[in-house]
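Convert to structure. Protein one:
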Amino acid sequence: MKNKKFNLKNYLVNFVVILLVAALFMPITPLVATGAAVTAFVTGTALSFMHIDAVSLMAIQVEIWQNHIEEELFKDNAFLRLSYNADDYLINSKAVHIPQSGGSGNVVKNRSSLPATIRTRTDADVIYLIDEYTSDPVRIPHADTKELSYDKRSSVLGEDVDKLIEEVAENMLLNWVSSPAYGTYSSSVLPAASILLTTGANVVASAPSATGVRKAMTQTDLQSARAFLKQQKRWKEGKMYGMITPAQEAELFPADSLTTATYMASVTEAERREGVMYKCQGFKLMTRTTILRTQANKTIIAYGAAGAATDCEAAFFWYQESVEFAFGGVDMFEQLKAPTLYSDVYSFLVRAGGRARRQDYGGICLLQQAPST
């Protein structure tokens, strides 16, 4: 054991701290000061012989990171909770069951034939699996926990969390307009009739790899989306939402327009916390950098697929009860001081899933940028 020496400076700091704590509970008297002096000496001496691993003091708090992921997921992507909450319908955090009504019976005016025929309603159902999103394991070399002037652990994990959240949100938008095959259920996709086209003036194409021009979005287009959803009988005031890109926001709500301020002023504080920026044509509108991409023929492009010059951006409009989201929770994995890697290793896992609540995708429509002709 190394020789330990009394350090006057450390002792005085310890004494002052103990004295300040004591002052919170009792008057400072000579007796209290003497007790603080003795306590400072005893604890300071004892601690000097104890080995405290600095890394253990900085060990990551798994629960805090898990809570952080959940909070950030719904803070930055509030639209996920502007849907039917299917968390309670999760089966072993792996699958969700959605009952599908068989529909109502006939209504007869002045029925003359008795007894009436008794009907049995035959319900169908939809089952889908929850997706599992996992980050690549990342290692923090031992030297980085000792030598760097900033907390590399927090920096690296923060970037991984941001990417994980982005993947969940982007894939959920795709899930709401398309569904993969599962068991006896075949794959399906939003009908082409539910993809409307913009009608405005020519503007520069805004999809990442797109070239040329597309037709801008207009408030008349919003009115068309409103009429479409009302015709489907999937409209309920206060529960209608729309998501547009920043480019479409500039087209619809120019900064120099007096009406833009009106559309913004009608949004309540509670709605702003949900991410709503404008109210127009009965929709609560929010903006997002990326939403969905389509081909010119209305084919929906999968998230992560390579872009093309003919791509078009599509805004998303929905009735809150027409889509659902199920959150299966967050897990974090860590291995401190991995002996073969000489590092700490971390990774994250999120379970989440969702889809359109009706097989016919009722209550959902897209507004696709129309290619200019």
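Protein two, convert as well:
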Amino acid sequence: MGQPLESVRIADLTTAHQGPWATQKLGDMGADVVKVERVGGEWSRNLAAGANDDVDGESPFWLSANRSKRSITLDLKTDEGRQAMLDIAAGADVLVENFRPGVMDRLGLSYEEVREVNPEIIYVSATGFGSDGPEAERPGQDLLMQSLSGLVASTGRKGDPPLAAPFPAIDNHSAMQIVYYTMVALYHRERTGEPQKVEVNLLDSALDSQCQGFTVELNIDREFERSEEGIAQKYLGAPYGIYETRTDYVAISMTPMDRLAEALEFPELAEYDTQEAAYEQRDEIKRKLEAHTRERTADELLEALIEADVWAARVDDFADAAENPQVEHNGMIVDVDHPNGGTFRTTGIPGTLSETPGEIDRGAPRPGEHTAEILAEVGYSESEIAELAETGVTEPE
């Protein structure tokens, strides 16, 4: 059975997480993703977890975002490397890059220059702040965008320091914008024959991912503060938050206070059964409710809440989540080929299509693993390929 994007070729010049995770998503759906790396490999291959931890010699960060791709190494600062890149772009449907503004221009690989060799190219440029403007030259990185966009200031308890999300929340959302707008541009080209340039940036993605909060803050004339007791969203009332039990922690989401009172046989909670009371007295409610939940085990509490259709869940760590029966049923933890042999475990494809399902058909490549193969596909002879390797334009064999 074919994959939905099997006829699409993508020239991938992205680095770090945002861009590579986006192109990996497209590769999982069958696109031929040609990962163009500097000679020696992209810098994030050496980004260690913890002090200096890797997965059999490879960065776990690299492995998490670069499967379903082929790798070619090129020195784009050389005339020969630039020409090889243009030859690859000439046969591509999409080019994706996430350098700072101006880098592709200096390399001679701007949208206009690539269009000269491929008038039908979809050219996707992902930046930190945008391609122009007062802060366009600043480096864009996930933590910086969490901080600038209000996310960090909204997280945590009142009186405590601001708290960042412990995963690349803005990188991930921005990556999905790359995927989304790439698919929109491909669909538009299919209908009309018209190619175009797509621009995505981390700052806009950071604001977009917090559309609820911005809509509240921009339209309601009051000051919203973080909760003292850990209500997990500063715009919501109790019981929305994390609660300690005798054995573990449990999350309780939005639910009417009378239903929660009945489920827990705790009638005092019903006194707060208005939106006004649940918000204005949220810290008082949280203290009373948590004193009650601490007397029960997590299993006892969840049994009562789930039976009453209260939105609740156990607070699991990664190891627990990986063993969740539903996660296993959904096939979301998978074994993928490791570039140095064997396999590594990672997350799978989070969506299904009944007729054209995605497939992880290859693991993350070694640096330049497919250089000769890719160059041959765009018309280079064996001797030309060997000369590029000898002169350092590509990875030596």
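The first helix runs from residue 18 to 28. The CA atoms of residues 74 and 394 lie 5 Å apart.
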